[in-house]
Amino acid sequence: MTYWQGKSAVVTGASAGLGKAIAAALARAGAKVVVAARGAEKLQATADELKRLGGEVLAVSADVTADADVARLVEQTLAAFGRIDLWVNNAGRSDRGAALATTPENFQALWELNFLSVVRCTRAAAPHLLATRGHLVNVGSLAAKIASRYMGGYAATKFAVAAYSQQLRLELEPQGLHVLLVCPGPIARDEPRAYDAAALAGLPASARQPGAGARVARISPDRLAEQILTACRRRKKELIVPGRARLLFALAQLSPGLGDWLVRRWT
């Protein structure tokens, strides 16, 4: 019997990519999995695929930027499985654009999805996670720790996720809630992500690449999913992949000038 056998888990942004990989890892481990995303057809196809792994899977089409949808996601999870042991805030998207070219409207749209959805879901799930002494996983990015060029509003929203995760740890860890912040580099994708052509105008070709051209190997979503579940079992506070990025973060805190120089060299 695995640690996750019989536990109930919710994964947002679960119809593809890392979210789907986390849900699949949980299903293989015997968890009861709720997969959530906006696109109902693609989400149901994902759920059907995960059921073939032998797990109990429920698909809930939900927009995590809407309070009513988040409340319904929690209600349907409890109705189906009776408890919540793990909640993964994975829904989000990256961005491209020069800082001054990124409008307040661009920032607001990304803020709603990348940060406020984490707040909405966490507030809705927290009472149930506290009851089970469960796990809250917030998926950030290397950009949650150090900004890079040409990433539009992305880094600002992910920095907020990192700060919120730390505040939650400080306040709720003594009550039994485990909070894990995941900060991965660019994740391997089956299809390249499409960005707004106008935002890319005038940017170097590297800005179109994963991680805005960060010189790190693409991360396997399946391997990262297993690392996340291991980090939960060990109740770790952060998971940074690749781990060597911690040195860059430390140097940038000690010397912002050195940090900026390294980021320019690294991306």
Element layout with pairings:
Layout: E1 8-12, H1 17-28, E2 32-37, H2 40-51, E3 56-61, H3 67-81, E4 86-89, H4 104-132, E5 135-139, H5 154-172, E6 178-184, H6 197-200, H7 221-233, E7 238-241, H8 245-254, H9 256-266
Parallel strand pairs: 1-2, 1-4, 2-3, 4-5, 5-6, 6-7
Helix pairs in contact: 1-7, 3-4, 4-5, 8-9
Structure explained in plain terms:
The protein has 267 residues and is of the alpha/beta class. It has a single domain (8-266), classed as Rossmann fold. It contains nine helices and seven strands. The chain has helices at residues 17-28, 40-51, 67-81, 104-132, 154-172, 197-200, 221-233, 245-254, 256-266; strands at 8-12, 32-37, 56-61, 86-89, 135-139, 178-184, 238-241. A seven-stranded parallel beta sheet has the order 3-2-1-4-5-6-7, with helices on both faces. Helix 1 crosses helix 7 (221-233), helix 4 packs parallel to helix 5 (154-172) and helix 8 runs antiparallel to helix 9. The longest helix has 29 residues, at 104-132.
